[in-house]
Amino acid sequence: MSEVFNVYCDESCHLENDGQKAMVLGAVWCPLAKTREIAIRLREIKQKHGLAPDFEAKWTKVSPAKASLYLDLVDYFFDDDDLHFRALIVPDKSKLNHDAFPGQDHDAWYYKMYFDMLKVIIRPDARYRVYLDIKDTRGAQKVVKLHEVLCNNMYDFSREVIERLQLVHSREVEQLQLADLLIGAVGYINRGLEGNAGKTALVERIQRRSGYLLTRTTLYREEKLNLFRWQAAEIR
Fold first, then answer.
1. 4-234 topology per CATH
2. Where are the alpha helices (DSSP H) in 80-138?
3. 129, exposed or middle or buried, with CB in 10 Å at 0-12, 13-18, 19+?
4. Of these four, 79, 129, 146, 177, which has the most CB atoms within 10 Å of its CB?
5. DSSP reduced 3-state for 226
6. Strand pairing partners for 225?
């Protein structure tokens, strides 16, 4: 039997006209056999900080007052060998030129970016169950299209590699909250933001633990914290 992995995907500022310069797509993944153990440990960390185990950890909630909680969550990610993270960074959406590609609009480009983000994670000799955070009413349509794009690009027409792609609520999935946290930190530094001491401390901890600046592409085979900085200059 091939190994099964759960992949938890989230995104930041992916809309075409949201007024935000940088976009980040990212995913946390781990073996299916370890998902329950990891979720329990993440809830225990919340309880250690006096919070309910079902408290939803999110980048938007990071503050100086809760910095210690989020630093512990980040440290757990780096300490657990079963957890991995990958993000694709688009530093400046204003440079996109969809008209240069016949038949391409922002949605088509978005699905291409999602594949580029996930293709490094997915191995043909394993199986994957992919979960996305529910964000809007177009979610169900997006899931169908994304599953189709991913499987077609991998020649996985029988869907034996990417077994499942479904929407879930991040408040119910600990690993998805971890993905939101890491994506938020990557987006924060790539947008040149500052002013929140809690968020700055989190970015600095991730930089120190990973050994990366979070603004550049890492080695392709980096397995713990893997980043790809996509350049719109590729459009010609």
1. Nucleotidyltransferase; domain 5 (3.30.420)
2. 106-118
3. middle
4. 177
5. strand
6. 85
On whether the CB atoms of residues 210 and 87 are closer than 8 A, the answer is: no
How far apart CA 20 and CA 13 sit, in angstroms, is 6
Show the tokens assigned to 77: 């990610």
For residues 67 and 193, give the distance between their C-alpha atoms in angstroms, rounded to a whole number. 17
Q: Phi first, then psi: what are they for 31, rounded to 5°?
A: -65, 140
CA separation for the pair 229, 81 (Å, rounded): 24
Residues facing 90 on adjacent strands: 23
Residues 70-82, mean pLDDT to the nearest whole number: 98
Residue 132 in this model has a pLDDT that exceeds 80? yes
CA–CA gap between residue 44 and residue 53 (Å, rounded): 7
pLDDT at 192 over 90: yes
What's the rounded Cα separation, in Å, for the pair 96 and 46? 40
Q: Is 211 left (phi over 0), alpha (psi -120 to 50) or beta?
A: left
- The structural domains of the chain, with segments of one domain joined by +, span 4-234
**199: number of Cβ within 10 Å:** 22
CA atoms within 13 A on the CB side of 79: 10
Closest CA to 86 of 199, 162, 179, 165: 179
